[in-house]
Specification:
The chain is α+β, with helices and mostly antiparallel strands. The protein contains four helices and eight strands, in the order βββββαββαβαα. About 30% of the residues lie in helices and about 30% in strands. Strands 1-2-3-4 form a four-stranded antiparallel beta sheet, with helices on one face. It is globular. It has two domains: about 35 residues, no CATH class; about 110 residues, no CATH class. A hairpin with a 4-residue loop joins β3 and β4.
Length: about 150
């Protein structure tokens, strides 16, 4: 999730540990209750267009959930935290088009841009902690599908 060629900054403020990449492109917050916040910059497509590529968002979401599962296993190996609430939010993306990789390649210079979309681009689900590992593909879909529906 972090770019290995860039530095990492660490800070503890109150009960929260923050680890972030230079310029805030990637950030992880962890507090003593086991809450985890993963912030990632949206991967840009090869085209110069402002677009969200479904497969890339899906991949980044899967990576973030995999990291969260690993981190929870590290800080809570006895699994006292048995349930998780997972939220996904896309900020500053209201005017971006959401397309699949195939759609982007088929029409690299044409797309319809979003105008006047709701700025609340978040979805959430509640699951057992084991779903982070055992049902991660479905969990990602349960987050991505309703989020993409907001773009239509």
């Amino acid at each position: 999730m972090f770019d290995s060629s860039s530095g990492v900054e660490r800070e503890i403020e109150g009960d929260t540990l923050t680890v972030q990449q230079e310029r805030g492109n990637a950030r992880i917050l962890l507090n003593e209750q086991g809450s985890i916040l993963v912030t990632l910059a949206i991967e840009r497509s090869e085209s110069m267009m402002s677009e969200l590529i479904y497969e890339r968002v899906q991949g980044q979401c899967g990576e973030a959930l995999g990291f969260a599962a690993w981190l929870l296993d590290h800080i809570d190996p006895t699994q006292r935290l048995s349930h998780v609430a997972v939220a996904l939010n896309l900020s500053n993306a209201e005017h971006m088009a959401w397309r699949t990789q195939r759609e982007s390649k088929a029409s690299p210079n044409r797309m319809s841009m979003g105008m006047g979309r709701d700025s609340n681009n978040s979805v959430h689900v509640n699951r057992t902690r084991s779903a982070l590992r055992l049902d991660s593909v479905r969990l990602v879909e349960d987050l991505i599908v309703p989020l993409r529906r907001k773009w239509r």
